[in-house]
Amino acid sequence: MKIVTREESAELLERPFEERKEEMKRVKEIVGNVAERGDEAVFEYEERFDKTVLSKETFRVSEEEYAAAYKEVSPELLESLRLAIRNIYAYHSRAGRKEHIVTEKGRTTGYVIRPVERAGIYVPGGTAPLSSSVLMAVLPAKAAGVEHIIVATPAKEGKVHPLTLVAAKECGAEAVFKMGGAQAVAALAYGTESVPKVDVIAGPGNIYVTLAKKEVYGQVGIDMLAGPSEILIVADESADPDWVAADVLSQAEHDVLARAIVVTTSKELAKRISERVDARLAVLPRKEIAERSLLSSGGIILTDTLDEAAEISNKIAPEHLELYVKDPDALLPKIRNAGAVFMGAYTPEPVGDYFAGPDHILPTGGSARFFEVLNEDVFTRKMSVIRYTEEALKEDGEHIVRLAESESLMAHARAVTARLGEENQ
Questions:
Q1: Which CA distances in Å does 393 have to 107, 130, 397, 401, 405?
Q2: Whole-number mean pLDDT of the chain?
Q3: Are 173 and 134 in contact (CB under 8 A)?
Q4: Which residues are annotated as catalytic?
């Protein structure tokens, strides 16, 4: 990995803007086609992109397919999956969605919280099965009280990966449809003859999925617009260079566009991390992907202090942030922008990816400045509740009428004066 000073880090920290005009043009065409032609359009795109021939009878995963999937998952793997489900569901359930209503002097104000009726969950099915994404998107919706949870995931030659199906069944998804890409997002957003229209779409995906979510936003709610995975590791002299190297590669192997950056106050540590990354990279099964990722978007930045490291982190607003320092609790208050923060030597990023409980569907590309981790709030809505007594309206009515009249909304004013007996007929 290249090692640079803070002054030399501008190129490494930069995220070049890509307008993606051609991809957006294709997405608009696909979304419009699915909105107009429904199932028929989805089937055509699935055959073209995923070599999957579908019909109304095979579109939705059958009980027989679930049963076959269970036979392909080992008892040990199923046990691990169920333990992860327990942790993740318990975490989202205890997070709490407290309603808040207060009554003072005849004025009741506040809000109540309601789940959406239907949630659509997108689960990628590209280079590797991502059953963990089923858990991380379905379980927050379930904890929020969503009644109907629909999963969309691509099938390869007609078959969904067994572990994805088992995960969906174990999490309580109502249905799994064999569809991916922009056509899946469009089907969930607009509904088809077979796919029910949902209220919120959540879950990670490639550039076409992301652009499709952007295109249908407003027709439905979405969780976020996520891009390639990324990690930033703040490390001091207490860090084990081999462990840091392992964590760097845990993100770099995701995608050639993934970003892995280390910020450290120790020159010696930086040198040793770089050596250990090279050594581990040499024997990594996904070496080519990780190597390209590190060449384009990886590096080690040297700073004089941990405060400077925190400043860099806040500027990057990373998806995953590891505070691999002697006292992570002292550094945490200085962190403002991150998707998820992993504290200390024994909390590598995969702990959060799979098992601890907090979600791994996180804002990327600096969007942690305004997006947040996927959580049960994505699947709920706050509804305001207001109640006035007669006495309260009499006391406040003059002010309400005055403000309405200032906007020339006389009917608004008269809706109040009618109740106060002040209206001239």
A1: 9, 56, 5, 11, 17
A2: 94
A3: yes
A4: 319-320
